[in-house]
Task: structure prediction
Amino acid sequence: HDASLLLRGQRLEAIRGWVAAADNESDLNALERRFLDASRAALANERRAAHRRTRRTRQLLAAVAALAAAAIVLAVVAMHARQVAYTARNEALSRQVAIEAQTLSGTDPALAMQLAVAAYRIAPTTQATSTLLDASAGELPTRLRGPIGPSSLAVSGSGRMLAVAYANSNRVRLYRLTGGVPQLLATVTAGSAPASTFAVAVNARGSLLAAGGSNHQVRIWSLTSVTHPRLLAVMRAGAGTVYGLSFSPGGSALAAANSDGTVARWSFAIPSRPARQATLVAPQHPALQAVAYSPSGNRLAAAGASGALVVWSTHGSTAPLASLTAGATTLTTVAYSPNGRTLAAGAQDALIYLWNVTPGGQIQAGHAPLHGFSSWVDSLAFSHNGRYLAAGDSDETLRVWSTSSWHQLGPPLPHPAPVTGAAFSASDRQLRTVDENGSTRLWQFPPPSTYAAPGSIYTIDYTANARELAAISGGPRGDVELWNVANPQRPRRIAAVHMPAAFGPVAAVGALSSNGRLLAVGNAAAKVQIVSLTSSGRARLVGPQLKGAVPYIEQIAFSPNMRLLSVGDDAGRIHMWEISNPAHPVALPTIDQKGTSSNVFGIAYSPNGRLMAVACADGEVWLWDIANPHRPRLLARLKGFASYAYTVAFSPNGKVLGAGSADDTVRLWDLRRPSVPRLLARLTGPTSTVYQVAISPQGSTLAASTTGGQVWLWNIDNPARPAVI
Result:
C-alpha cells in the first residue's frame, strides 16, 4: 500500500478521538479498521524513528562535547607545558645572563648592571635578583657607546659640555651634561682616513672646539650654536702627529703638542681669524705627547719621549724656562694643579711624576712618584678644588689620589679597556672617563668604594630615622665614623670620633642611640665609655667609664627609649645601666645566665623595650623579661642550633624573633606568647656562619650576613613560610 495515503497529523488525531469517545470502533468495517490501525502503526513507527534520531543526536552531541572537553583539557595541558617550557627557558637564559653580569662586574660595572637588569627582566630568579642587588651596591657609571678605538675627551669650563674624539672614525661628539642623562648635541668630522684624531679641546667658555691628529692639522669650530658647530679654520701644526691640545685658561690661545718635538700656538683674540704665534721647540726634539697651560696662563708645559718635560713662558722669549727629565721613559700626559703649585706627568713606566712649582715659576722635585699601576699611564686630571688627582692607565683601571697626603683613594675603578682620558665635572661630583673601546663613562665622585674607615669595620648602627650611620672599626686605629646618609647615593662624613689615649682604640664594638645623640664604645679592656654627639658630629665624653665586664665585649645595645644600656661579655653576662642621665649612669643587676659561661654574642631589645633576646655561644637564645630592669626574669631558652648563636633581631611589631648561628642557619620564632615561643621556620641556604641578622622597618624582609661575604634576603610577610628573595 501507499504509506503516503495514511492518516497523519490532525486528521488522525480527530479520528482517534472519535473512535475512543463513544466506542465508535464497532461502526468501522474491516477495511477501515485496518486503515486506521496502519495509520496508528505508521505514527508509532515515526515516533520511534524520531526518538531514535533524537537519541542519536544527543549521543552525537555528547560525543562532540566530550571531544571538545578533551580538546580543551589537552589545550590547557599543552599551554601549561608550553608555559613551563618558556619559564624553564627564561630561567635558564636569566641565569646565563646573570652569570655574565657577575663575570663583568669587576671590569665593566656599567655593562654588568645592564646585564643584571636584563637578567631580572627575563626572569626574576633568585640568582638574577642577587646579581642585580650586587651590581647596585657597587660603582654605577653611566655608559655612552662610541666607535671602537682610542678616544680622548675635553670638558668646557662650566662642565656642562663634553667633547669626545674617536681616533678611528675621525669624529668628535658633543654632549650636554646638565641633566641626568647626557644629551648628544652634534657630531663633527675632524679628518679623513687614513688619518686618526688623537686630541680634542674645548675652551673655558665652551665657544670653541679644537681637534687634531695624524694629518698634521688642527681644526677649529665655533660653538655659538652647539647643535650646529661651524668650521672656522684648518691649521697646520708641524710635521708630525698632534697628540695634545690645550686652550689657555681664558680661551684666547691654543697650543698643540706635536711628535716632531714642537708646540704650535695660535691666538684667538678674533676667534674667526686665529693668528699663528711663535712655535716652541723642545730641546733635542723629543716626540711630544701632551701639553698643558698653567692656571694663570703664564706658563706652558709639554711632555714626551725620553722623559722630557719642558716649560716655557707664554710671553716673551721662546726659550724654555725649564727642561727636565724623568728618566728613560716616555711621558704621555701632563697636568697642572688648579693652584699652579704642582705639575704632574704620567709615564709609560707606570709611574706618575710630581714636581713643585714655586711662586716664581721654578720647577723643583716634588713628592715621590705615585705608583700602583701595571702599565702605561694614559691620562691625568686634577679635581677643580685641587684635592684629588685622577689617572687612567693601560692596565684598564682609573685610580684617584688625595693631593694632601698622596694616598690612593679607595680601590681602582675598573674599565674593560685602557683608560685614555679623564676629567672632573665643574662641581667635582662626577668623573668622566673614555677608553680604547670608544666608550665614555660618567662616574659618581667620590665613588662609593672610597668611603673607608681607618680600620676594619665590625659594627654599623643607624639612627631610628635612618638619616645617620655610625661605622665602628677595630684594630690599632679603631674609631667611629659618623655619616649623614639622608641621601644614600651621596653619604656625607660628619665626623670621626677618636677616643683619648687613656681609653685606647675602639675594640670593634659600640652602639648608636636611636636619636643619634649618644654613642657607647668598648675597648680591649672591656670598659665602656658613653659619648655625647652634637648634630655637627662634635663628640664629648659623658660620665665615667663603665666597668664590670670581662674581655671581650661582644655586643653593646641601647634600649629603644634610650634609658638602658646593655653590655654582653665573654663570661656570659649582660651588664646593664640606667642612663636617663648619661652623665650619671646607675648600675642595674647583672644578668648572669646561670648554667652557662659561654660568650654573649648578640643582644637585641624588643621594640617596646620590655623583652631582651641574648644569643650565646652555647647555641641557645635566652629571652628575658626586663619590663622591670631591676628584676629581670628569664622567660625561655630557645634551642635547636647545632653551633654558636651569633645574632638576634626582633621584628618591628615585636611578634617575631630571628636568630642566626654558626651552623649556617637562621631560625624564626613566634613571640605573641613570649613565655611560650613557637618555632616558625628554619631558614637554610648560607654556607658559612650567619654573623648578623636584621629585619626591615616594614617587617617584610629578613637580611642575614655571613662570614663568607654574602647577604641573604628572605621575604617574611608570612614568617612561617619564608621565601628567598
User: Anything to note?
Assistant: The chain has four helices and 52 strands. The chain has a mean pLDDT of 91.
